[in-house]
């Protein structure tokens, strides 16, 4: 019997055993992200569960832009469609989607206690655990070690340092013949990713978090204006104008092909930058994002994804079981090693195999633990509108359609209107 046949035979045997035990094989559908290697990792994980249980799992992929993904989910859930059993949801969505999701605490047997408390709290809405943490995220700075060395530049401490080094290296590389070389690539499209980038700039200048923990709109302040003005100055200087249409993958494409000195991205980009076919393999360093000024702070927006079971699923029990499997220690360890996805179980940050594969998980542990949250808990169901207003105002400043002062006072009025009767 060939290898394939053996494993097919074993699969069949599992199904027979399950059937004999009176368990009916089900087909579950999970919607997974498809950014970088995400879809493949999701398929491998769900396949392992299917082999163990005799059930089938269908993986459907979703748009890469978190904003587009949210509107797709909202349509499916508003129609009370049972087509998707398990949704991969963003850390900022529990408040918006809670009413469509199952309370998982009835199925977990306390498994959530092994995860970061702040995430479990984030995923608990009105006392219901609407999602299990799957991986966490924080924005980080990728840089080319070889080029900083070649041009005798330090790893930047402040955004101004970053801007200066980017100019020096860009001028040199262009003179040497690479006219596609840029200093800094990031996510500037008008979507959720820009909210994450801009929140980093603002909070690195100590300019707050758009709306504070008490629900007060704080975005119209001098630190925020300074931060946006600096970012706008990058366009056509150290960043290409096309960055205004970049999501994570466009930025990674430029950096990974060797055409940028710095990149802002999430940790997933590490394992791809280190892959065999990457032009920058072994030439990349990762550090916390720069501070606003000398008295600013290193920040990184808290991101990350959770797994939730739809209230309209007809396979709730099996779906909850698959969620527990995918969010378990072993599976998070596999995803950390193979895809540099940040675990949500603290102990994995001390695991030698994980740290060998992704050294900065140890070095930047504090950055990951103290990621700056977007104001989604306080604004609840209104978060989508808050973020949309923020990324649109920011995009106008970046593209030169508005001055920071004008954009931020307009944004302030708009947000105050949204929050007027409480968020
Ligand atoms: C990453 C983050 C997520 C964020 C998204 C924005 O996927 O994990 O939280 O909303 O990027 O593009």
UniProtKB/TrEMBL annotation:
Highest taxon, organism lineage: Bacteria
Keyword Transport: yes
Segments forming a coiled coil: none
Pfam family, one: SBP_bac_1
Subcellular location: Periplasm
Main location: periplasm
Keywords: Signal, Transport
Signal peptide: 1-20
Family: Belongs to the bacterial solute-binding protein 1 family.
Name the record gives this protein: ABC transporter substrate-binding protein
UniProt source species: Marinobacter aromaticivorans
């Amino acid at each position: 019997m060939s290898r394939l046949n053996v494993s097919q035979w074993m699969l069949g045997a599992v199904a027979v055993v399950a059937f004999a035990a009176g368990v009916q094989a089900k087909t579950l559908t999970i919607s997974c992200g498809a950014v970088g290697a995400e879809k493949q990792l999701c398929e491998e994980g769900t396949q392992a569960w299917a082999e163990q249980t005799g059930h089938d799992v269908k993986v459907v992929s979703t748009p890469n832009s978190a904003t587009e993904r949210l509107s797709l989910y909202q349509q499916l859930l508003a129609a009370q469609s049972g087509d998707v059993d398990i949704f991969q949801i963003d850390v900022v969505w529990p408040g918006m989607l809670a009413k469509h999701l199952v309370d998982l605490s009835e199925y977990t047997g306390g498994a959530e206690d092994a995860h970061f408390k702040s995430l479990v709290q984030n995923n608990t809405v009105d006392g219901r655990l609407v999602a299990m943490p799957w991986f966490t995220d924080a924005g980080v700075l990728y840089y080319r070690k070889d080029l900083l060395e070649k041009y005798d530049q330090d790893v930047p401490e402040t955004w101004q340092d970053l801007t200066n080094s980017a100019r020096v290296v860009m001028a040199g590389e262009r003179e040497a013949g690479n006219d596609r070389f840029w200093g800094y690539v990031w996510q500037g499209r008008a979507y959720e990713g820009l909210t994450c980038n801009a929140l980093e700039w603002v909070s690195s200048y100590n300019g707050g978090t758009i709306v504070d923990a008490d629900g007060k709109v704080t975005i119209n302040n001098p630190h925020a204006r300074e931060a946006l003005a600096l970012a706008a100055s990058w366009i056509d200087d150290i960043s290409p104008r096309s960055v205004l249409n970049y999501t994570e993958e466009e930025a990674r494409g430029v950096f990974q092909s060797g055409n940028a000195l710095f990149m802002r991205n999430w940790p997933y980009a590490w394992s791809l930058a280190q892959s065999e076919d990457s032009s920058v393999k072994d030439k990349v360093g990762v550090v916390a994002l720069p501070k606003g000024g000398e008295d600013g702070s290193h920040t990184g927006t808290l991101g990350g994804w959770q797994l939730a079971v739809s209230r309209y699923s007809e396979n709730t029990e099996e779906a909850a079981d698959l969620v527990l499997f995918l969010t378990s220690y072993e599976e998070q360890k596999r995803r950390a090693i193979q895809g540099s996805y940040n675990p949500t179980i603290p102990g994995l940050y001390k695991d030698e195999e994980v740290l060998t594969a992704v050294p900065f998980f140890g070095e930047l542990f504090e950055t990951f633990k103290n990621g700056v949250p977007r104001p989604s808990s306080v604004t609840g169901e209104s978060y989508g509108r808050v973020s949309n207003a923020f990324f649109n105002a920011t995009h106008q400043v970046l593209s030169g359609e508005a001055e920071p002062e004008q954009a931020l006072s307009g944004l302030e009025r708009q947000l105050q209107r949204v929050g007027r009767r409480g968020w």
